[in-house]
Amino acid sequence: MNNDLLKAKICKLYYQRGLSKIDIGKKLRISRFKVADLLAQALREGIVEITINEPSHTFLDLENSLEEKFKIYRVAVVESSFSYEETKKNIGRAAANCLLDIAYDGDVIGVAWGTTIYEMVNALPSSVERNDISVVQVTGGLNQVSMDFNAIELTRRVAKAFGAKSYQLYAPAIVDSIETKNVLMSESNIKKTIEMFSKINIAIVGVGSVVPEPSTMLYRDGFIRKEDFENISKCGAVGDINSYFYDKNGNRCKTELERRTIGIDLDHLRMVRYVMAVCGGKFKADAIYGALKGKIINIIVTDNETAETILKKQ
Question: The pTM is what?
């Protein structure tokens, strides 16, 4: 049989009739490796052309470009809205779908706090069919963050949706002294939750910005003091995750504030298999870029304007 004709026949069998490479090989008395090779040649030579009818309001090329640039697992991009609050809702819905995609039986899910994670939790179904899930609070925040956005409440709600065991971190995100932190870390319930950090294989975090101004509620409400902010600024901080600050390359800002912060730190996050950042807004582009460049996060759910801004950065 003419080689081009053979390629066309194989393409018909594979793409139109749905036969496997093994079945085609048996039918034509050639190896499945030969079938695979001829399919690849047909694609390169234009004998077969693949058209993907992308749903409207999607950004697959943008997602693929970011995944390739930063060598990360997954990017999900939603359409930016005129309203930042609506954009966060869109991101939250996409993040909920992403979590459902990657969460399997036996996983240990870490949950931080924030307004966009709150929208993700709102978008989760009331009941998720998974078995043997554990949900761990990965940052403090007791009495420092509004109850709706507090990691204690968000962890509880995620655990309820998954029918999971919940590990709470009943401690502030930032304390007044290192001595206070040491006392809290020795408390049995807090210690039990901290010990779960090493078992987390999916972490859901927000990203806070420092430039052009701090976005974290802890700074706005006075829990991060002015002198703390001056110190992290000298370090070149561009953002924070779980109140741990980092520079444009994702390097830790090793200030006294870091030593008074309670939660999973950046070095431990880098050891988690999947770290999903749920965040948006062009003003956070530097912070998200630093987290990506520093390999702190490897899945991101964001909006198209933010994604495009990040992609342009060098």
Answer: 0.85
| Positive or negative torsion for Cα 27, 28, 29, 31 | negative
Residues with Cβ within 8 Å of residue 109, at least 6 apart in sequence: 99, 103, 133, 134, 135, 136, 158, 162, 164, 200, 202, 203, 204
Of 147, 134, 144, nearest to 173 (Cα)? 144
- What span, in angstroms and rounded, lies between the C-alpha atoms of 270 and 298? 9
* φ, ψ dihedrals at 165, nearest 5°: -75, 140
pLDDT in tens, 247-280: 999 999 999 999 999 999 999 999 999 999 999 9
- The Cα 82–Cα 54 span in angstroms is 24
Backbone φ and ψ for 299, nearest 5 degrees, come out as -140, 135
Closest by CA to 280, choosing from 65, 117, 98, is 117
For the chain, which domains are there?
Answer: 3-45 (1.10.10), 60-312 (3.40.50.1360)
Q: What is the pLDDT of residues 96-127, one digit of tens each?
A: 999 999 999 999 999 999 999 999 999 999 99
The side-by-side arrangement of strands in the sheet containing 237-241 is 208-209, 237-241, 244-247
Q: Which amino acid is at 187?
A: E
Q: How many CB atoms lie within 10 A of CB 222?
A: 9
